[in-house]
Amino acid sequence: MSTTSAPICLFILLLPIALFAQQKRLLNAAANFEQLSIDRNYAGFERSSATTGVRYRGVPRSANFLNQEVVVGSTLFDLQTNASLSNRLYLGADGTKVAAWMLDLSFSDDAPDRGTGINQHIDSWQALPQMRIESERTGWPSVSRLGDGRLIVTSHTVDNELILSRQAVDGVWMESKLPTITPKGRLWPHSTVGGSDEMSIHLVALSTPTAFEGEPYLGMEGQLLYCRSTDGGDTWDQVDMIIPGLDSSKHLRIDPDAYEIVGDGEIVAITHFGGWGDVTLFKSTDNGDTWNSIIIRDFPLDKYVIDSGYSVDDIPLDTLAPESLAILTSSGEGDLAIDRDGNIHITFADMYVRDSTLDDEGTTFYPFRSGISYWNESMAAPMFIGGVIDYDNNDTLSIDVRQIARYGNSTLTSTPTISLDQQGGVYVAYSAVSEAHFNEKDEQHYRHLVVLKSLDGGINWGPLYDLINDEFSDPEFNYFIEAVYPSSAMLAADTLHILYQQDFFPGHRLVDSMDARAENFMVYLAVPTDLIPYDGPVSIQEDVLALGIQAFPNPTENEVTIRSTDMPSGTFFEVQVFNLSGQLMYALSNRPLPIQLELGFLPQGPYLVRVSAAEGVGWTKLVKR
User: Fold this and answer.
1) Are 246 and 215 in contact (CB under 8 A)?
2) From 510's CA, which of 114, 182, 287, 621 has a CA 20 to 30 Å away?
């Protein structure tokens, strides 16, 4: 039995603006005010603190459930990224599929055999690989295919070098080290293929930070560097270039894996999913020669120095924030795709951060919050589209926060990935904590894969759909599945192609010392797009104006009073303010009318005010000057 979560749909017929956006309920754990320290990042050199010597196989290695879900590989190294996934699943125009992941099948804490696992599907998937493709220990692979048909993989070594592996037609992998001008090398590469002949390799990687035996580079602890080859990797005409805006003029540091890159023809796009910085798109339309940038979510404290402190006057008012000094940003997890018209579509995981203690050289975040955002180049601001599924439909997340396994700096919703079709369809999948699935042994909740879709370019979105269900997975096992690190092919025609990591224990062993060294399966999941539910732009007409809702003064520059002409004073209401993309901008609950709102922080433009009570729902239009 599959599980969906119905969104709250907005459609106001009596207003001059047609609003089709669908608003999901934002559910958070009961302790959503609780903070944790920002976790460290990993380069794959670290020794695990986990229990060793345990190998657990929950399903046969040749598992194939209903021809939708196929195990294509396995690994005992269960960390696949610090934040965003690099390109791990390639889909060719001829239907060829290639999956890549970090592979290690040794029992050693040092994971000496770790490297890139590759499996290819032409007519069928190959046998599960037992060893890496590289001659030395590597990590953080990206996979693509050149225009001449050769597969390529980029990764980093324990010596902070970058390796390009190219597979000849006969299947033999040839390696070369990438040139660099940085004194301490680079780590965490993400790469893609582009160019009119599909022979250009575009790559971004971080200069090695001090924490990994590096040093500050050009004024930054972790400088994102861009490299390009236009001849399939034989030579590199751009080496360790600085893209304007991805430098010390805007940043003090960039975190490992808090970025992703895609290419299609002459278009190359990079997104930086800043934690203590902006979420920004960098786009080139000339194969990486020049770049333009767009700030998608502005972080209010530019180049913030940890422990320097700030006040509520330094940040915008956010009525949805867990605390007054909490700042909405991104967890560093996100993905992007290029549509047929060359426009960029982006999704990322929301996160609140705060510098709580000004003498600890660290910051905190709120792990028990949730939220997935979406943006494309036609939008002024990102919109909230996804969260956790409310399985029991009680508007409450029934989870004890002590029973949630930690994945780095992820919240309840993590690692979103995005795919597009040629008809305006947009598909976003991500990993989310499930209130309905619980590991009794570890006393932790599982994470499942959640997907939702839009069929009109991201304007309207369907309900949340749990992909770990009887239609796609073995019914005997799917209750016990931990599904994390999804990576989807950029193109989805009639099928959404996803690679994800699956095992039967919540969490991963680099963080949780209680986790056994368990075998993790790399699973390819083919999801027919017509099976993903979609209601379309529906008209609900929630008794519009039945409560006699009025706003004055209207237009307003800041303060506005909301009242009801049909309900007695003192009646308790929920008040929500939406922009015309359906994004929730302001909310108050359990308050009596009339009530005065301060909306000076909102951008100028039209808004919709929704007021709900037990007696019904009312709407009114509001203009902010």
Assistant:
1) no
2) 182
Q: Which 3 state secondary structure label does DSSP give 252?
A: coil
Tell me the three state secondary structure of residue 377: coil
Kindly state the DSSP code that residue 313 receives in the 8-state scheme: G
Q: How far apart are CA 479 and CA 133, in angstroms?
A: 34
CATH of domain 36-531: 2.130.10.10
- Cβ distance 538 to 545 under 8 Å? no
Round to whole Å and give the CA distance between 449 and 527. Answer: 12
Which tokens hold the place of 552?
A: 């004055």
Instruction: Identify the band that residue 96 occupies on the pLDDT scale cut at 50, 70 and 90.
Output: very high
Residue 98 and residue 613: Cα distance in Å, rounded? 52
What residues does 383 pair with on adjacent strands?
374
Whether the model pTM is above 0.70: yes
Is it true that domain 543-624 has CATH number 2.60.40.1930? yes
CA-CA distance, 450 to 390, in Å (whole number)? 12
* pLDDT (average), residues 346-352: 97
* Average pLDDT over the chain, rounded to an integer: 86
What token pair was written down for 498? 């996803």
Instruction: Give mean pLDDT, residues 87-110.
Output: 93
* Residue range 398-431, pLDDT digits in tens: 788 788 898 888 999 999 999 999 999 999 999 9
